[in-house]
Amino acid sequence: MSNILVYVLHYEGALNKNSLGAVSEAARLASELGGQADAVVVGGEDLTDELCATLGSYGAKRVFRAKGSEGLAQPVVDAMAKVIGDEGHSYALFGGGLLGFEIGAGLAARLGAGVTMEVTAVKVDDGKLVAERPILQDSAISESRYKSDVGVIIGRLNAFETKESGGGAADVEDVEVEYSPWSNKATMVKRGEQRGEDVDIEGADILVAGGRGLGKPEGFELCEQLAGALGGAVAATRAVVDAGWYPYAAQIGQTGKTVAPKLYLAAGISGAIQHKVGMQSSENIVAINKDSNAPIFEFSDLGIVGDLNKILPKLTEAVKAKKGG
Fold first, then answer.
1. pLDDT at 194 > cutoff 50
2. For a tag on the chain, would you pick the N or C end, based on fewer CB atoms within 10 A?
3. Three-state secondary-structure class, residue 57
4. pTM of the model
5. What is the pLDDT of residue 273?
6. Where are the beta strands (DSSP E) in 211-252?
7. φ, ψ (nearest 5 deg) of residue 126
8. Sequence-ordered strand ranges (E) for the chain
9. How far apart are alpha carbons 33 and 36 in whole angstroms?
């Protein structure tokens, strides 16, 4: 029997979307392994019994709660190392994000465990987990198997789908952790995007993304107007971010963020593989490009060949008219 432990990030009384996806994925995998999924949370008074217990809805059986500095890696490494040592979990699973990378790497070093980052899928083979991650500029998939007692798996952002399992409340257990001398000396002063504006593209259900086909920085005004009418957010390709047309926080792709909205509308984006890996999990992909041979049409659900400077304003007007009616 192999149990899986998941770290769940929280902020201001809300549980992180990627963490919930990791819990859902752990529950699915644990059921195939004949084990169970558990969770670890670290923080202060906002980690109420009620909030922690809701993780049962996503498949967690037990939630181990520890008091410590929120949003920092070291207290979580200490807490997870203790829980794994006491309970004997075979795997630790993380949703994507910089904090997950930092915690996972620290935990792997602490336990002498194998670790795989940027994982896009996990499967069960011969009673053990196998982690899959893209390599060679996402042109091939590498499989990681673990010889160590514990395997550490860190997903890409939005790699794991959030699913409610219909389970009851999880059992909440308080854990007394003997923190390392340095673990709680730092405190989180402010959360924010380090490189660019505060653009929430990861949580948006609708994204209007712009590329070089917009022609100039002002072209993003068309994307912003359509996104505003649809109630979505604006994203961008690396090329236009590098050119200074839009902030890094909105960048999609291999060196940006991975998204999975219900609708991804790509305006003037050719569809290079580096961009594709960041948005290919979108439920519906609509592409607008004047080049009928643009690679993005190969994986779009709907393709429109034409001048986006004419099409985007008409789409915006149509959406506003529909909502007004």
1. no
2. C
3. helix
4. 0.70
5. 86
6. 233-236
7. 55, 40
8. 4-7, 10-11, 14-15, 37-43, 60-67, 91-94, 114-119, 121-125, 128-135, 140-144, 151-155, 171-174, 206-210, 233-236, 263-267, 284-289, 302-305
9. 8
